[in-house]
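Budget justification aside, the reviewers requested a transparent look at the raw inputs and outputs of the sequence design task funded under Objective 1. We therefore reproduce one unedited record. The lines immediately below are the structure tokens for a 87-residue chain.
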């Protein structure tokens, strides 16, 4: 396998696993909504971190880094929502 193809595949596999990691916040959101409040700091920091990575991926020159932007976009939504429900 050529080096470029390997890294393209690796990037997309990492994208899928990162998205799964952020979707896993759903159980914490459910607990928060039902009165079993979880920690608010970690999801807030994750959401901020994901925002920075999405900006990096979208504004990188000369070529956008789509796997980075796509992988971190759920972290913005789920991170901030988890933070909000934990308050």
């Amino acid at each position: 396998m050529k080096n470029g193809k390997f890294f393209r595949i690796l990037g997309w596999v990492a994208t899928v696993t990162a998205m799964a990691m952020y979707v896993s916040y759903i159980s914490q959101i459910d607990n928060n909504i039902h009165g079993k409040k979880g920690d608010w700091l970690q999801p807030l920091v994750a959401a901020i971190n994901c925002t920075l990575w999405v900006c990096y991926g979208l504004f990188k020159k000369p070529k956008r880094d789509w796997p980075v932007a796509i992988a971190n976009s759920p972290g913005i939504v789920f991170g901030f929502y988890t933070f909000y429900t934990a308050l």
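The chain is about 80% helix and 0% strand. The mean pLDDT is 93. Computational costs for records of this kind are itemized in the attached budget.
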